[in-house]
Specification:
Oligomer: single chain
CATH architecture: 2-Layer Sandwich
Order of helices and strands: EHEEHE
Number of strands: 4
Length: 108
């Protein structure tokens, strides 16, 4: 299992609209794979949203992202210009960790 941690740096005040856009688009994206976590920052680097997606491997990630990219309801319709920077990291869990998602979902 791998996890993609995506961080978006937003303009000040843009988090509510970005979260609303994600909430609207998320059911369409979860047809392909469930989200593991979604957060926004309150302390530390401000104006960030972070979302986490779990995949079996990089091949599954590529396939799912290609499929989801064909969906007219994905990606979320964040107001143009509100995303300053996007960063994606692939994380490997320690061998003793259980998969995130389902009963292990974070952010609830």
């Amino acid at each position: 299992m791998i996890y993609e941690v995506r961080t978006y740096d937003l303009k000040p005040g843009a988090i509510p609209q970005a979260e609303e856009a994600f909430a609207e688009a998320l059911p369409h994206r979860e047809k392909y794979s469930p989200i593991a976590a979604f957060w926004h920052t309150d302390i530390g680097p401000l104006n960030q949203i972070i979302h986490v997606w779990g995949y079996e491997d990089l091949g599954e990630r590529t396939r799912i992202r290609e499929e989801a990219g064909k969906d007219p309801n994905w990606p979320p319709k964040i107001t143009p210009g509100n995303i300053i920077n996007m960063n994606s990291e692939i994380w490997n869990p320690a061998p003793f960790m259980k998969p995130m998602g389902g009963d292990q979902a974070l952010g609830g």
